[in-house]
Fold:
Amino acid sequence: MASPGNLRGWQQRRVPRIFSLLNFAFPENIKLMPQSPGALLRQAVTQGTIQVPGAPNALTARLIEQLGFPAAYLSGAAVSAGVLALPDIGLMTLTELVQQTNYATRSVAIPVIVDADTGFGDALHVERTVFELERAGAAAIQLEDQQLPKRCGHLTGKTLVEVETMSTKIRAAVAARTDDDLVIVARTDARGVTDFDDAMARAKEYVAAGADWIFPEALTDRDEFARFADGIEVPLVANMTEFGKSPLLTVGELTGLGYAAILYPVTLLRVAMQAARSALTAIADKGTQASLIDVMQTREELYQLLQYDTFDQRDRENFQTQRSS
Structure:
């Protein structure tokens, strides 16, 4: 293994500092990659439309990777709810987001797309946001054109910043990245505030400002998804969140329309919370969890996901070294 001093800048950021200082035996999916996370993500979408589930925590990101998905999404809504028990209205801080990004990127080798909301302020704040998230290993950073207080993209009550304000943020984000392959995703919420034409016009301005990908939020039907794809030439992101304003189109439909990536931001959190609710009800009603065993992840499955054997082997090796010294 190369020493930290011999690693390229982005590789140093990719390796958890405590592990590198201890010359730790890395789990199989924590490794030095020949490409940066952004380059891996860009390469993935050249091979076809990718499905990107939302990960409310690092262990879920590991499961996403284990099941073969090419990327994971750190959704602001899922992390804010799942980690902080707070609504998605801009209450999560940059420090908290960077910490969660670090947890996710050190646990998986697949690219992680990070939802940075409004960038935590004006253009200078966006610069720092990009610096911190890129250093934390983000493959892509998503910025949206809402004003504070922001709202979930499929709720009412949103307001927009001026086009030039958002364009300035995008230019700041592009200038702040040190890896040209880091993907800057510009999300426009205009469809749910003004109209489709404004969303399209804003998207074109954001592309001109340097956005690599465009994320049109809360489109209302398949025709709008198709029209957006016809009007924008850079890669597009589709949000297939449940209980929102957009129809739940299939990967086949969105591939046919030309979308690069499909997000499922809160799907896993919603399913997990409903399962937890059912389990708690069963425990309260029956006085035991015995009826739930068949629907549980087994101890072996959890340990495999955590790569427990790797850590156990390392611990045993350290113990043997200690005894022989």
Observations:
- The mean pLDDT is 89.
- Strands lie at 50-53, 72-74, 112-115, 140-144, 183-188, 213-216, 237-239, 261-264.
- The longest helix spans residues 267-286.
